[in-house]
């Protein structure tokens, strides 16, 4: 479990990305994302890293883990959605980032025990519903004397959320915010249990040649690109992310580009990397070559429970 200070630091970084159009680095062979980004040079992929990506894809193809994944509910976007048009003013944005809320109203009772997640394909999955009070506690973890958002009530409803099986209609709690005409939404169901990976984490490819991806940031609306966070240091030329696409999987291999001259420090730098795909990701599994597992998603407020 992350400490509160660490979580808030992550929230501040994420909100900066969302509100300021922070620069991004694009993956090898991908198009540039919006912002003042610099495209990472295409240096090719080290043979052992490429071989590892293929091993990961082969291990997942037709596996029991893949079968469970395609039958489950795994969100790939944040469980919280802001009112239409977003938040107004720096104070409200700060309150949301620090999860500083005040409750001044009644929260509706749980309408039923379970709710359905529904996909455009017609498939659905019944999952336990979260009580409004519990959903509110996951949104409102703050408690400082700074700016706050006031919740005056909540009612059951729905929201559309990107998942590993494409967009889904998900049961949600609609929280009424003082001063806003539309609600803040919070998913009322949690994800399915994460299946056990059919392949062990990487132990053969050298450090730097293949590194751990930090997390998934977003999937483009058309599904033709994904944005991830990748770490690098101050003495290198930045991160690169190669992609291996198959009919059932998309395997991302993160690496650190060659060292550069000049003064450097020991801090870790986290960069957004947007990787373009040859076709929409659809229901293909997005995998990290280093871990051999699906790339974790983390939203502004909390890590997806799939990965906790």
What labels would you give this structure?
308 residues; alpha+beta; seven-stranded mixed beta sheet; globular; disordered N terminus
Question: Would you spell out the secondary-structure blueprint of this structure?
Answer:
Blueprint: H1 4-20, E1 25-26, H2 47-60, H3 64-71, E2 80-81, H4 89-97, E3 101-103, E4 114-119, E5 124-128, H5 132-139, E6 149-163, E7 166-177, E8 184-187, E9 213-219, E10 225-233, E11 239-245, E12 249-256, E13 268-276, E14 285-288, E15 293-294
Parallel strand pairs: 1-13, 3-6, 12-14
Antiparallel strand pairs: 2-8, 4-5, 4-7, 6-7, 7-8, 9-10, 10-13, 11-12, 14-15
Q: TL;DR?
A:
The chain has 308 residues and is an alpha+beta fold.
Explain what you see.
With about 300 residues, this protein is of the alpha+beta class. It contains 5 helices and 15 strands. Strands 2, 3, 4, 5, 6, 7 and 8 form a 7-stranded mixed beta sheet that branches. A hairpin with a 6-residue loop joins strand 7 (about 165-175) and strand 8. Mean pLDDT is about 80; it is low at about 1-45.
């Amino acid at each position: 479990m992350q400490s509160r200070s660490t979580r808030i630091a992550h929230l501040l970084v994420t909100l900066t990305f969302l509100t300021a159009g922070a620069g991004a680095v694009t993956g090898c062979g991908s198009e540039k994302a919006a912002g003042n980004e610099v495209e990472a040079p295409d240096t090719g992929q080290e043979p052992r890293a490429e071989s590892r990506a293929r091993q990961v894809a082969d291990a997942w193809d037709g596996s029991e883990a893949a079968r469970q994944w395609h039958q489950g509910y795994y969100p790939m976007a944040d469980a919280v959605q802001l009112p239409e048009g977003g938040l107004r003013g720096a104070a409200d944005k700060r309150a949301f980032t620090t999860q500083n809320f005040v409750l001044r109203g009644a929260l509706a009772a749980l309408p039923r025990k379970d709710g359905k997640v529904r996909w455009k394909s017609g498939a659905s999955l019944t999952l336990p519903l979260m009580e409004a009070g519990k959903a509110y506690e996951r949104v409102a973890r703050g408690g400082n004397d700074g700016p706050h958002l006031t919740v005056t009530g909540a009612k059951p409803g729905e929201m559309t959320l990107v998942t590993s099986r494409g967009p889904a209609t998900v049961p949600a709690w609609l929280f009424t915010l003082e001063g806003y005409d539309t609600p803040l939404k919070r998913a009322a169901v949690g994800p399915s249990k994460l299946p056990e990976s059919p392949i062990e984490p990487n132990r053969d490819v050298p450090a730097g040649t293949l590194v751990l991806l930090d997390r998934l940031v977003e999937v483009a609306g058309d599904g033709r690109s994904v944005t991830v966070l990748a770490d690098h240091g101050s003495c290198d030329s930045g991160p690169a992310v190669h992609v291996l696409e198959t009919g059932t999987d998309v395997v991302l291999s993160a690496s650190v580009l060659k060292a550069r001259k000049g003064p450097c420090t020991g801090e870790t730098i986290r960069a957004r990397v947007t990787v373009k795909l040859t076709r929409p990701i659809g229901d293909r599994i997005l995998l990290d070559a280093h871990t051999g597992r699906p790339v974790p998603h983390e939203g502004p407020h909390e890590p997806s429970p799939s990965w906790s």
